[in-house]
Amino acid sequence: MTSPSRPVTEQTLGAWVIKCNPKSTALEPMVAAGRAKPSWCIADNYRSRLIETGQRVLFWVSAHPRRGIWGAGRIAGRPYAEADGLRVPTEIGLFDDPVTAEELTTVPVLRTMEVFRSPQQANPSWVSRTELEALDELLPRSPVVGHAGG
Predict the structure, then answer these.
(1) How many domains does the chain have?
(2) Could you report the per-residue pLDDT of 117-145, keeping only the tens digit for each?
(3) Does any domain span residue 148?
(4) Which domain holds residue 54?
(5) I need a surface site. Which of 48, 68, 73, 85 has the fewest CB within 10 A?
(6) Nearest to residue 90, comparing CAs of 139, 130, 145, 8?
(7) Does 141 fall in a domain?
(8) β-pairing, 80-82 with 85-100?
(9) What is the pLDDT of residues 12-54, one digit of tens each?
(10) DSSP 3-state assignment of 36?
(11) Residue 54 lies in a domain
């Protein structure tokens, strides 16, 4: 029996994507602070075992009129267990204005990002190195890491 395909590897990973649904997680306090909250629930699977301190992370807001990438930063530590499941610490600064899904889909290579193909998938989502290269041309500076590229 062969194992299922695992598209996320150390070689293919550009950045992790943490998704936030403002219907279940308050967005306003994060916007007021200019930062996403410091840790996020993630699925306990092969992806969580690939997460390392310092890797890039993007902040995707779903279920919002301005759905898209609202911030960028870094993974701030290894995933850890809590009563509510596995969590990952992050340091994510929010942009003054998000880069909306509508803007992202104007770039052909970004139309097939995982957040578009599998929007209901649990955190973390991801973008490939090729997708991240295209995103770096669109993303504003992050108050946490400077340019989205770090």
Answers:
(1) 1
(2) 998 889 999 999 999 999 999 999 766 65
(3) no
(4) 13-136
(5) 85
(6) 145
(7) no
(8) antiparallel
(9) 999 999 999 999 999 999 999 999 999 999 999 999 999 999 9
(10) coil
(11) yes
